[in-house]
Amino acid sequence: MNALRKLFSFNGGVKPATHKAESTRSPIVPVKDIPLPPALVLPLHQSVGGTPRPTVKIGQHVRRGERIGAADGYFSSAVHASTSGTVVAIEPRTMAHTSGLAMLSVVIAPDGRDEWADLTPPDWRNMPGEAVREYLRDAGIVGMGGAVFPSHMKLVAGRQTAMKTLVINGAECEPFITCDDMLMRGYASEILAGVLIMRQLLGAAEALVGIEDNKPEAIAAMQTACAALNDDAIQIVPVPTRYPAGGAKQLIRVLTGIEVPHGQRSTDFGVQCFNVATARAIHEALDYGRPLTTRVLTVAGNVANPRNYEIRLGTPMDFVTRQAGLGPDTDSLIMGGPMMGLRMPALDVPVVKATNCIIAGSPALFPPPPPEMPCIRCGECARACPTDLQPFEMYWHSRAKNFGKVQEYHLFDCIECGCCAYVCPSHIPLVDYYRFSKTEIWDRERQKESADQARERFEARNERIEREKREKAEKLAARTAAGRTAAAAGNTAPPATGNDDAAKKALIEAAMARAKAKKEAAAEGNIDAVPAEKTTQAGMSAEDKQALIDAALAKAKARREVADTGSPSPESAPETKPAKKELSSEEKQALVDAALAKAKARREAAGSVTAAPATTDTPAAPAEDNTRSPAEAAIAKAKAARAAGQTATEKPAKKELSPEEKQASDRCGPGPCSGPESGE
Amino acid sequence: MLNNSPYVRRPASVTRVMGTVLAALVPAIGAYVWQFGPAILGQLLLATLTALACEAAMLAARGKPLRLFLTDLSVVVTAWLIALAFPATAPWWLVVSGTAIAVVVAKHLYGGLGQNTFNPAMVAYAVMLVAFPALMSQWPSALPDAITSATPLDALRTGLREAGASVASVRADGSVFGSLAGRGWEWLALAYLIGGLLLIQQRIITWHIPVGFILALAAISGAFWLADSARYASPVFHLAAGGSMLGAFFIFTDPVSASTTPRGKLIYAAAAALLVYLIRVFGAYPDGVAFATLLMNILVPLIDMKTQPPVFGHKGDNKV
Hints:
The complex is a heterodimer. Chain A has helices at residues 129-138, 179-186, 188-202, 216-229, 248-256, 276-288, 317-323, 380-384, 391-399, 403-408, 419-423, 430-491, 497-523, 529-536, 541-566, 572-576, 586-610, 613-617, 621-624, 630-644, 657-667, 674-677; strands at 40-43, 53-54, 61-62, 67-70, 79-80, 85-94, 102-110, 165-169, 206-212, 234-239, 271-275, 294-301, 307-312, 332-335, 342-343, 357-361. Chain A is α/β, with parallel strands linked by helices. Chain B has a two-stranded antiparallel sheet with strand order 1-2. The model of chain B has no long low-confidence stretch (mean pLDDT 90). Chain B has helices spanning 14-36, 39-62, 66-70, 74-85, 92-108, 120-131, 133-137, 152-161, 167-173, 185-201, 208-227, 235-240, 244-251, 262-282, 289-306, and strands at residues 139-140, 148-149. Classes of the chains: A alpha/beta, B mainly alpha. Chains A and B meet through helix 5, strand 15, helix 8, helix 11 and helix 12 of A and helix 1 of B. Chain A: Keywords: 4Fe-4S, Cell inner membrane, Cell membrane, Electron transport, Iron, Iron-sulfur, Membrane, Metal-binding, Repeat, Translocase, Transport. Chain A: [4Fe-4S] cluster 1 binds at residues 375, 378, 381, 424. Chain A: Its main location: membrane. Chain A: [4Fe-4S] cluster 2 binds at residues 385, 414, 417, 420.
């Protein structure tokens, strides 16, 4: 039956040296055989969703499996203590990311007893689906292939399409990484128990476990465990070894023939994809009540004994690599594989849920790339691209900072798998150019958004001032009329009602005309007109004061909104802080933003290749909105900024685009490397 | 330290790409020496030295690293193509000035490696053909008693101008003709074909342009030949004559100036074949490869833009 299954193929791909034999000689080192580190650093943000709130206090004693961070909303995932001990700090610590940014972490000093909290397995078979999903969220289950997308959010069938196929990703296509391979060899029945749970929650007709055919032991172990289940609807399917066959979309294509386009959910095609380690974690959570506190990871590269370990989350990476005999000439650690992995900013960053592999890098293992040559349009990158892009065209336009064109060549379909850069005979760091372009586009989108908000703010203010003025005029007119009536009554002379009405009308009209003039001035973008009018109308000072307060409040609110909508990650806080100075210190801001967005891009890419299909959907959300051309965005921004009368926008409105471009080119010199590097 | 993923690279380089192209030209050079004598070797050396000197001068003038770009061998490929495309009997200054134009004008004034809109070797050929048509039309003869002669294409066209002449009668008269096309030229065409297959096998070029060109040229010449075989030579003659094979595998396939998408390559090659045929048969020049290349180079951006392949998930056959 398995042999008869028709497999499909994706275009492109590469076959780098796998380096997998070294770390598969001995089984996974169980967690109990690894000494406890002096301190465990548990970042609260360990999924692509919202950052959990800390639920513990400094000095509090916690046990393993106790929740230390509660999920912030539905699109989030909880974090748990990975051993028993005392919370010694809750503070920002450098995170496992190239950017080197710090984020809020709970630091636990282990007490050495490693006690579990009281665990009560849920009666999940009799719970409604929503309750099971919430349970998984609170158990901290995320995609373990490296994408760390909250798994509970993916365990929902599509609304339109019936779930047909549950794809389980055991392909593990990146070189060096063997954690899934060893997990399948050692924990096949646990993985399949998780697969059964997921299949039930999704109501999928079949489950296909795709494993690259360079892992015969894993395939055999999984097939044995599968035979024991006696379930025809689960199949273990060997797939051809070709990077990136383990990309969720590539694996779905190979197993089902379906190509899930960028920006669409695989569930809309009746398919969902999970990593094998996620399956095991779900089984552990629902059948034993154990939240996610450890993960299996490969330690490889410049170490004496490459091997797989089950590591407590929060263990410093240098502590982990020392277990395997870290080589003395190690110059950096890479989290993930050599094709898509992230270079760590320090050796002691903690192991997180995304850490499927730590490669100790040395100059001998990863020599610096040869000098970059010009592109000769040989097309090798296009032949290697698994997404059927024209990488060299995106490169040309990225270099020219022609971001509209880059998007026309489907920049946001790029999964940053690195195949193009791997094959390039000119040694061009192609992926860096795409990250740079994505970052720039996101940055412009953000600027446009804040400009839109400023414009809305300004229009609301104008409207309010106009309304207040009208009301005041009306009140004044009414009062005058009343006074006259009273006076007229005292004089016993019949009041000239006609005159009175006329006066009232005149007053209102005058006020209206003033307001109209002001509005017109604003509409024409004559920014000087507003303050000029202010100064001439001395009587409006109180109003102005009020307006200023209102504006400040609105601005603060807008800023908060930007922080909320801009990015679900905590990085968004620092990036929105200098919003007020955005225009004046744009260069500085742009650099920070570039690094952040780059980080985000990389995370998104990691998500799309190593784990679940839906992972690419949500983190990519900002990309969806980027179909508008940057030029359009810049023009809109210019308009809005002008309308808002911001003093910083001294640039002539019509020329807005060119100074901006000039600025961009100032920021990144004309040299071939300077573009992407500027994001560093 | 600061470089990002991927951290591993396939051992590929521009030098390797260009070196493979040079290696693929070796069979043709061998056939050339065998059929037309060793004069071509001197011409190859002359063109190579001129090209390297011009490249070095331009790199220095543009402030580019000399060693890095001189060792990429791209300029040597240009030089060899010029040497093979020019008549081996051409005076030395014709080769030197042609090479200089290719390297200085067609390559570096357009921005150097990877930036040239036009195929440098074909620019050199076209400029020299227009400037010195007589010198560029006299070719070494494969016959022992003659030093130079017209090319078979030239001889055929000239012969057909006479009243009552047919392809068969001209070919029977002319000593330059061999069993397929021109005497000696057939072997050269075969050698280019062998070298071209090596390029495909080594993944330096894809099959699209050679196959597209050969099929289109065969189809067009075949149509005329079937209509009037007395006036029009057979497809075999056209494929084996002149620069057809050199063009199919080494000229039209120049990645920098050619179309890059799979469909675009087929269109590019087929249109080039049409131009080659029209220029050969109805034009004033002995061969059309150079002009066809330059004309098609102009169209490359348009062809590429209109033939972008669908990306993953947007192919229309999504639902299975």
